[in-house]
Every structure is written in structure tokens, then in C-alpha cells.
Amino acid sequence: MLSDNNASRIVKKLLVETARLSLEENLEEEIDRLVINMIPKNSAANRCCVHKDRAVIKYRLMAILGRSIEDEQDELKPLSEYAKETLNREKITEPVLTVIDEACSACPSGRHFVTNVCRGCVARPCMVNCPKDAIEIHNGRAEIDEDRCVNCGICLKVCPYNAIVEIPVPCESACPVGAISKDQSGKEKIDYSKCIFCGRCMTSCPFGAIMERSQIIDVAKKLAEGRRVAALTAPSAAGQFPCDFKQLKGAILKAGFGEVLEVAEGADITAKKEAEEFEEKIREGQKFMTSSCCPVYKEAAKKHIPELWEFISDTPTPMEFAGRRAKADSPDCITVFIGPCIAKRQEALEGSSIDHVLTCEELGAILVAKDIFVRETNHAETLGSASIEARKFAVSGGVTNAVKTHLSGSTEIKPELIDGLDKKNIKKLSDMCKANTDANFVEVMNCKGGCVGGPGNLSSPARAAKRIEKSFE
Amino acid sequence: MKKILVEICTGTTCHVMGSEAIMEIRDMLASRFKDIVEIKATSCIGLCRERNAEQAPFVKVNGRVVPEANLLRVTQMINEIERGD
């Protein structure tokens, strides 16, 4: 599914504009004006008025500058001061997400509501079956008494006209681990002791109230200064632009990156080591082993399925191997991982080989800001030396296929795929630890379809997978 | 009836701003358009350079420009052209 909507387009416009100002080394001087440029005086307001729209844009820009909105001390502090601090910062801080309370609409929670599809029927199954006597008929139509209703949902199930709906809170419904909920004022707040950084709250909020704390300015600044910056492209990044990989590589080099390394080369090392580890662990009698490259899954295991931890492979991720290699080749270089994932920001913070993480969306913004047209860019001379299996790591089933190619044959692999880490699959993984299972190798991908379905992507998973296939055939 | 040509720009700006979602329009069109609408992905048509890049993504329907294109706007333009407006 593509997530093209007005909220995401506003963020992308802001990313492009801030990247442009940053590359022109004009960010501090111009960023306050950007708010007015985005929402001029007589523009049609998305919210109640242009002033509210401008306030939200200011907070969005704060997130793009890498700040937590929750940390705001002084409402009068201008964006130019935040920009100055970002331009001077050396270290990235946690957490990777932030909630713009000004943008949050405090959606009414989990309420059941009778729509005008209700025909006030004689059977009245909603009324008869309500265990709390919360439904009455007024003017020939059912009405729910909110004080009595306990949101059990029986009325919704029994209505033959589908006239009763449950109004969800999109971010809360999307979160598979219950990490986001309302505070006393009704605005959403993330509990980071539960959050697994999957980004579902961010992509599901229709008000765009949840944002990532971007590192686009940090990267743009280093490019503008002419520092040696290495781009480490995730396997899924190869499918995100309307061109083949060699051309994308050419475009990234043109944008000022010193070199482009494929994280797929790290994936080759991960697959090889994971195959050895799998054979060894199964030989020693371990019931099963799971893949370890999805940071959302690892975060979920750490915080919500601790019994699963011992079954996760100890092998480092492709990003980690690729980062280590880049730092070994050139210790002074700035390593920038480019992929679709929000949790990679967290993984990078915990490790030491990756300095910055950009989403494919943010890379796109840098290319636009630099007026680089990928389809008109010259192909890079070399493609890289990763195997085709490693390059397909980003599509569900890809890790299993890559691991298979490195098996010695001493142990029979019985793979299982967890494609999308929802509530059901989290329970399934927990059950696997307790009960017997037929599988001995479990590949877990948080995003449906694999990393090509990540929240920071530009293309639909199907199109991205097809492009990867075509780029490396 | 003469064919209606929908040209979707796949230049970087239009792509980043969401032009790829418009490729799905083939499945969304009313059945009467099935044989008369031709959908084509084009290289950068240069409109983001001429005009304000903020108006991307751009789509051309029989040469008429649809700025800030989305499925709705493009479908409306196809309808307008069919009506002869």
C-alpha cells in the first residue's frame, strides 16, 4: 500500500525546503520565514485558522531539525535558534519519535456510534442484546448512552444493517504493543519503555501528529561542508526510485556523497554467519533459531517477548557489518545508512559504526533539493559485489533464501516466515517458545512484505520488489 | 472516441511527492474509460523546473497540466475532457 496523503506531502515539502536551505548554508537565516512561506496569510486553512496551521508547521520543522517536541521549554524560542543548535550538534539523542501535541486531535477513544443507516427495526437486536442496557430508541433510531456503554461491541456484531460503527483512535489501533495512549488532556503520548519503533503510529495518524526526529540537517550540513560522507544503501533502497540501482548510485554520488556502499554486501556476511550459527545451534539441541536483522522485531522481543530472546540469532545485522567495513576502510568517514526503517535509527544509536540514518524519503528530499533527476543521471561505473540473494534481503523470505545458500547440508532447514509483526504474530512467537513447533528457522519481518514495506519508503512494496528484481537480473 | 492520454511524470520531484500512487489509476477508472484512456509514465516533463516545485507531482491529461496531482484530480480532468469542457 502506498501512503500518499496530504499529511505526508506536507512533511515531504518541508523536508525538501529544509534540505535546500541547509545545502545552501542558509538554514539559520531562512527557517523562520519558511513557516510563513508554507502557510501564507490568505491560504485556506487545514485546521481552524492559519495561525494553528503555522504553529503545527513550526513543530514539524522542529522534528525535522531533530528535536523532541516534548522537550520544548520556551514557546517563544524561534526555529532559527533550534537550527543553530542542530547545526552545532555532534551527537544524536533518543528517542527517535516525537508527538506534536498541537497537531494531535485527541480523537475520542474506542467509542461505538449509531450511524444514520439505522432503520429502528422491530427486532432491535442491539437493544435486546446490550448487557448494560445502554441502548434506547429515540425518534425511530437507536442511540447509545455513553455513560453506560462499556464498548463490548455486541451491538455492532448483531446489527443486520451494519449501522453501528466503532470509532478507532488510529495510532492506538495501529500500535501492536500498546505503547501509545492518551495523557490527562486527551492527547497521545508514547511510552518508550514499550515502543518498538515500528512507525505504525506515525503512518496511521491522519493528522500527522507523530513524526520521526530527522537527521537530514546533520547529513546535509556535512555534505555542504564537503566532508567525506559514505552512503550505505539498504537492499530495499534499490527499489525506491524510478531507475535501476546503478543510476541511483550515480545520483547519490552526484548529491555529494563520497561513496555508495551496498548494505547487501553486509547481508552476505550476515547470511553466511547466520547459516553457521543455525547449524551449530540446532546441532546442540536448540528448538529453533530466528533471524536478527529486523530491529523492530528485536526491540519487540526485548520489551514484550523476553522468553524469545534466547532463540534470536547473535549474528550482527547487515547494517552493522557494512558500517564496520566502511569505518575500517576509511576511519574518518561519516557513515549514513539509507533505508526505509525508523528502528534503524535506534539500532544506530546503540551501535558505533553508523553515524546517521536517513529514510528513502529523506534521501529523495536531498536529491530534489539538489535538482538531481535520477532518470537523467549517469550510471555509476560499478555495481558492487553483493550476491543476488543478499540483494533480495528486503523482500519477505529473502533472508531465509540467503541463509539457505550458505548451509552445509548437515542440518535440514524447516523455515517459517513471520510476515508482519502484528498482535497475532507477537502471540504466535511467544507460543512458539512454550509449545512444540515444526519450524527450526524463523524469519521475522516487522513490515508486511519485508523492508520494502517500511514506513520511510517512497514506492509500493510490489513495485519496489519488481525494481530490485529488474536492477540485478 | 479519440484516446485520452494520461502522462504521469516520474521525475525525481514528482516521484518523491507521490506520483507513483497515481499509476494505480488504471484500476480506479470507470469501465467506460477502460479502452479510451492510455496511461504512460514519462521522464521528467520539466514542469517542476518551470513552475514552483511545490506544485509537484505533475500529470498531463491530453496535454492539460494537473498540478498537485492525485487520483481524484486526474480522474476529474479525464471526466472534463470526456465531457468536452
TrEMBL record, chain A:
<keyword id="KW-0408">Iron</keyword>
<dbReference type="InterPro" id="IPR017896">
    <property type="entry name" value="4Fe4S_Fe-S-bd"/>
</dbReference>
<feature type="domain" description="4Fe-4S ferredoxin-type">
    <location>
        <begin position="186"/>
        <end position="215"/>
    </location>
</feature>
<dbReference type="InterPro" id="IPR050294">
    <property type="entry name" value="RnfB_subfamily"/>
</dbReference>
<dbReference type="GO" id="GO:0008901">
    <property type="term" value="F:ferredoxin hydrogenase activity"/>
</dbReference>
<dbReference type="Pfam" id="PF00037">
    <property type="entry name" value="Fer4"/>
</dbReference>
<keyword id="KW-0411">Iron-sulfur</keyword>
<keyword id="KW-0479">Metal-binding</keyword>
<keyword id="KW-0560">Oxidoreductase</keyword>
<dbReference type="InterPro" id="IPR027631">
    <property type="entry name" value="Mono_FeFe_hydrog"/>
</dbReference>
<dbReference type="GO" id="GO:0046872">
    <property type="term" value="F:metal ion binding"/>
</dbReference>
<dbReference type="Pfam" id="PF02906">
    <property type="entry name" value="Fe_hyd_lg_C"/>
</dbReference>
<protein>
    <submittedName>
        <fullName>Iron hydrogenase 1</fullName>
        <ecNumber>1.12.7.2</ecNumber>
    </submittedName>
</protein>
<dbReference type="InterPro" id="IPR017900">
    <property type="entry name" value="4Fe4S_Fe_S_CS"/>
</dbReference>
<keyword id="KW-0249">Electron transport</keyword>
<keyword id="KW-0813">Transport</keyword>
<dbReference type="InterPro" id="IPR009016">
    <property type="entry name" value="Fe_hydrogenase"/>
</dbReference>
<feature type="domain" description="4Fe-4S ferredoxin-type">
    <location>
        <begin position="140"/>
        <end position="169"/>
    </location>
</feature>
<dbReference type="InterPro" id="IPR004108">
    <property type="entry name" value="Fe_hydrogenase_lsu_C"/>
</dbReference>
<dbReference type="GO" id="GO:0051539">
    <property type="term" value="F:4 iron, 4 sulfur cluster binding"/>
</dbReference>
<keyword id="KW-0004">4Fe-4S</keyword>
From TrEMBL, chain B:
<dbReference type="InterPro" id="IPR036249">
    <property type="entry name" value="Thioredoxin-like_sf"/>
</dbReference>
<keyword id="KW-0830">Ubiquinone</keyword>
<protein>
    <submittedName>
        <fullName>NADH:ubiquinone oxidoreductase 24 kD subunit</fullName>
    </submittedName>
</protein>
<dbReference type="Pfam" id="PF01257">
    <property type="entry name" value="2Fe-2S_thioredx"/>
</dbReference>
